[in-house]
Each structure stands twice: as structure tokens, then as C-alpha cells.
TrEMBL record:
Keyword line: NAD, Oxidoreductase
Protein's recorded name: SDR family oxidoreductase
Keyword Acetylation: no
Gene3D superfamilies attached to this UniProt entry: NAD(P)-binding Rossmann-like Domain
Gene Ontology molecular function terms on file: 4-phosphoerythronate dehydrogenase activity
Entry EC no(s): 1.1.1.290
Domain NAD-dependent epimerase/dehydratase, first and last residues per copy: 99-211
Xref: PANTHER family: EPIMERASE-RELATED
Provenance organism: Methylopila musalis
Key word Nucleotide-binding present: no
EC category: oxidoreductase
Length: 288
């Protein structure tokens, strides 16, 4: 019996469950609050509340019976809450055959616009990235200890239905920030789901997988392209140095790199449905 447990069923993990959940005999998911768990349950999912503290008996049982585990919950100040609360249950799971951990390309340091790949040592230049590096190592160590194939999926900037420049333009919140030479990778949520399915099918690949598109691009170009598809004027260009944005948003611009996806393509055999932002944004525009 194939049983998937998803820790942190947010935007990305939920999309995976929607597209690939039928390949499992049972699926258990978690949310941080009882209210959010109730919303997931209302959609027909077997949902548990888990805020990173003690495991409820039903979730502990699900973890001990799991064959596949997808972890989408982020680290906190103390490390990984899932490992702290569920490590013993996972070590007691006799049928666990795969662990997937959703990380970020933020673990790579600034490359001044140059290319990095899975062979590039992670040297994050932010506290968030440093926490991710530490937690990645903890999950890989658990996999080595238990003999369970473990894959780390380093995700680029995620977009998809309900979460793109199409919605931002319609809402009037899109900004066209310009920082000369700055580029970002992106990834459509459906391509992430395909990468996870491929990882489950090929659990020995990796263990590090960059899940990115093929064309890192300046953010202002993406906004302009989306505006053209909607036949609306793009917002005016704003210099990054003078832009009124949050410290969190500003921090993302401190790292400039192009992230290659060789393992995704060659080892996992994934052909991206949306290899650049153009295919992805155009599909979202067609979908309305």
C-alpha cells in the first residue's frame, strides 16, 4: 500500500497532491492550524493539524505507516520542526521508501549573474539560506541513517494559477523594478509537481535537484510580457535603489545568479511544460 504523508500542505505541495495524489492508496496532509486543516478536510483530504510541536496520535500513526514523505514546512529558529517532532516516528516507519524535502535555490550564494548547478557548494549569504543548508543536511543524514532514499528539491521562484504577474496586473499591484544585470529563475508549480513525481519514480537520482526554468530573466521583462498578453500598459519602471518595497523583497535582490537544472533534465528525465516564463505566463493568461 502506497501511503503519502505531506508535512505542510501549502500552495506547492497541495498542487502535487491534486495532480498526482491518485497514484497513492492513501494521502495524509498537515496544516499549521486547526482552521487550515479543517479547510483541507473540507476538500476531501485526510488532514491533521501540526504546528511543529508534539504529534497527535493519528498523525504519528500515519507517519509510521508512510511509504512516501514530502516535507514542505520551512525551518524555524531552532532547525527543522518536523525532524524534532517526527524523527522518532520516521525511524520507526518500516515501509518508508522515499523522502522529498522542498528547499530553495536561496542556499546558493551570489554569483554576480553567473551560473551555478547542483555541484556548486551551498554558501548562502542570508540567515534564511543558512538555515535551509543546515536542514538539508539533517534530512540527508536521516536518509543515510535509515537507508531511505532522500531527495532535496531546490526550488526557484514559484508561480502558477492564482499566483503570478497576471493576477498582480489585474489587481494593480504589479511593479516593474529595474536593477541592471539582475536576473531570477522561476518555476511553474505544475513543473514542480512533475519533478516530485519523477523523483518518486527515480529515488536514487540526485540527491540534490535544482527545480528551475531554463531562462533566468530580468523581473521587469516578465511584468512587461504579462502586460502585453493582457493588452494593458505595463507599470512604469522604477529604479531598485529608490523603490518602496519591504526589506524581505529587497533581500531577494541581493543575490544574482543563474541556476542550471541539469539533474532535473538528465537524471530525472523531466521535460518542463513551461521551460521559460513566456510559456507559463501565456498559459495562465489563456486560463483567465
Amino acid at each position: 500500500m502506497r501511503r503519502l504523508v505531506v508535512i505542510g500542505c501549502g500552495y506547492t505541495a497541495k498542487r502535487f497532491v491534486t495532480l498526482h495524489g491518485e497514484s497513492f492508496d492513501a494521502v495524509d496532509v498537515t496544516a499549521r492550524s486547526p482552521d487550515k486543516a479543517a479547510l483541507l478536510a473540507a476538500e476531501g483530504l485526510r488532514a491533521h493539524s501540526f504546528d511543529g510541536s508534539a504529534l497527535a496520535p493519528a498523525l504519528k500513526e500515519a507517519l509510521e505507516r508512510a511509504t512516501h514523505l514530502l516535507v514542505s514546512a520551512p525551518p524555524d529558529d531552532l532547525g527543522d520542526p518536523t525532524l524534532r517532532a517526527a524523527g522518532a516516528a520516521l525511524r520507526a516507519a518500516p515501509d518508508l521508501a522515499w523522502i522529498g524535502y522542498l528547499s530553495t535555490i536561496g542556499v546558493y550564494a551570489d554569483a554576480d549573474g553567473g551560473w551555478v548547478d547542483e555541484t556548486t557548494p551551498p554558501e548562502a549569504d542570508s540567515l534564511r539560506g543558512a538555515r535551509r543548508i543546515a536542514v538539508e543536511r539533517e534530512w540527508l543524514a536521516l536518509g543515510a541513517e535509515t537507508g531511505v532514499p532522500t531527495q532535496i528539491f531546490r526550488l526557484a521562484g514559484i508561480y502558477g494559477p492564482g499566483r503570478s504577474q497576471i493576477e498582480n496586473l489585474k489587481a494593480g499591484t504589479a511593479k516593474r523594478l529595474v536593477k541592471p544585470g539582475q536576473v531570477f529563475n522561476r518555476i511553474h508549480v505544475d513543473d514542480i509537481a512533475a519533478a516530485l513525481a519523477a523523483g518518486i519514480a527515480r529515488p536514487q537520482a540526485g540527491p540534490i535537484v535544482n527545480v528551475t526554468d531554463d531562462e533566468p530573466a530580468p523581473p521587469q521583462d516578465v511584468v512587461a510580457y504579462a502586460a502585453d498578453l493582457l493588452n494593458v500598459p505595463p507599470p512604469p519602471e522604477v529604479a531598485f535603489e529608490t523603490a518602496d518595497i519591504s526589506p524581505m523583497a529587497r533581500s531577494f535582490y541581493s543575490s544574482n545568479k543563474r541556476v542550471a537544472n541539469r539533474v532535473l533534465r538528465e537524471a530525472l528525465g523531466v521535460d518542463l511544460a513551461y521551460p521559460t516564463y513566456r510559456e507559463g505566463i501565456a498559459a495562465l493568461a489563456r486560463e483567465g
